[in-house]
Amino acid sequence: MRPFLRLEILASPATAAAGAPKIELGHMPEWDLSDLYAGPTAPQIKADIATAGEEAKRMKAAYQGKLAELARDGAKLVVAVKDYEKLSDTMGKLGSYAGLYYAQNQSDPARAKFYGDVSEALTRISTDLIFFELELNQIDDAVLDAAIAHKDLARYKPWFDDLRKEKPHQLDEKLETLFTEKSQTGRAAWTRLFNETMSSLRFDVEGEKEPLSLEPTLNLMTDPAEPRRRAGSEALAKAFKTNLPLFTLITNTLAKDKEISDRWRHFKDVADSRHLANRVEAPVVDALVSSVRAAYPRLSHRYYAMKAKWLGMDKLSHWDRNAPLPEKPERVITWPEAQAIVLKAYGAFAPDMAAIAREFFEKNWIDAPVKPGKAPGAFSAATVPSVHPYVLMNYLGKPRDVMTLAHELGHGVHQMLAREQGPLLAPTPLTLAETASVFGEMLTFKALLAETKDAREKKAMMASKVEDMINTVVRQIAFYTFERKVHEARRNGELTSDQLNALWMEVQSESLGPAIDLKPGYEVFWAYIPHFIHSPFYVYAYAFGDCLVNSLYGLYAEAHPGFVAKYFDMLKAGGSKHHSEMLAPFGLDARDPAFWNKGLKVIEGMIDDLEAMDQAVA
């Protein structure tokens, strides 16, 4: 059972939205979490915790040791499964509210305590349910297959199939209980320490009257003025270095924690548990990674060399990587404009898609403004099928912020469409979860590009999109490579800060290429990447989704028969189908390396177009 908050996080420097706005951005919504609970002191929270605890104990008394017998009659087993599903929705609702309430201000001790208390309660309750999935996996396959054939249980077949894939890695009930209870003082505690440390950090930036938090400091590296970018980078490096012993300890501890878990669960490769959770085969990921790494010279190396020329530099300092082009001052987009842009782009693809996205704006399912202590970056939280998703933004009017909004609303639309699958089947593996978000970004970008007539402005937009795609594909595969090196090395003992720094510089140098000068201070930038802490090896899902969307969008542009209907069917399926089943109606196969190269060719083609634009503008 996974009762806690599911987050799709977008938190790379290229897309993080922050900084002090220079103009009024218009009224921005803040979360109304009352669809979950009226507030942290709402009596219903205490009542639901008590009810969930009682129901878990009832289920344990009623079903433990009896599931094999129940499985001989599908009509009886389905009652137990529906009980389990209903309870998972209640627990997910509690965990979602606690997580979202905490995300609004992670520096508030009262919110942190509330989040910790609810998490502990859910962990305590879930220990009574550990037997359920373990016992289902002990049922003879022939008996279980016969039960699943029952008309009311058949819809859960994908869940049972996924469950059986977990069987070789499950432990006995006592060990699973220990792992679950210890997680509160293990991984969860270290993750919370990282979150609260990052939220509390302040960066002394030259030229600023007061210290800045992480988001506005990261944002300085997209400032038009090189001294401002440099000042932001140096402030980040200084603070990260001051706290480097802590970040090194957190990284070592979590990597060791994962190694212990992997060893006990018989996972051989450091990323095998992530592949299993993503329902994707290691050879598919290997094909993606090898294709992207082979394309570095044609993508990032080539693009950054072009950008250095545009900025009149021999090489780009690392703080110049996301600098805006000099062609045109970056447009500031108010919140009402951003809403209109995204909804228009979504509506041109499918009116139903825009209608779903509009609810997020009208019903305060988005928390948009930057606030002290607020979780950085952006994410969409699926919560539970009985409620609806919530989107977190840190919006400050940059064009990239509009792309981020389109990205997270893509997640939100996906999560809304998948709700009909129910708590056990709605959650989508991360690799496919990024599909709708990246597709939403592409729709919005294409709509903006079509409306742009000025050649220089169009070039700047194209360059920005190419940079986003490089950050989504090249940068995330470099992150994945870094994680692999860290976790593999950690199996041989603790890593020093210098060793972590060296691994980071090695993969960054390879991926960014000779046109980027990695100045002193950049070696510690691994320390702030939240994905390494929250979800080890999550990052390749972004590249998976981007390359997949490139192929899908190509089919859409070619008027592939029934594309919109097929696309909606894919989103509605949630986690009820394997990626091969999802892609089959489009004639796509992720096992084929040519599939990934096709997606990468789209990025390469956009760089070709930029080169041609550059010559035309000149």
Count of separate DSSP helical elements: 26
| Largest sheet properties | 4 strands, mixed
Spatial extent as radius of gyration: 24 Å
The CATH C-level name of the domain at 32-170 is: Mainly Alpha
Derived structural class: mainly alpha
Mean pLDDT: 91
User: Which of globular, elongated, flat, extended, rod-shaped describes the shape?
Assistant: globular
The helix content is: 55-70%
> How many DSSP-defined strands?
6
CATH architecture group name of the domain at 32-170? Up-down Bundle
CATH overall fold name of the domain at 32-170: Butyryl-CoA Dehydrogenase, subunit A, domain 3
Strand order of the largest sheet: 1-4-5-3
Roughly how many Å apart are the termini? 59 Å
CATH superfamily of the domain at 32-170: Oligopeptidase f, N-terminal domain
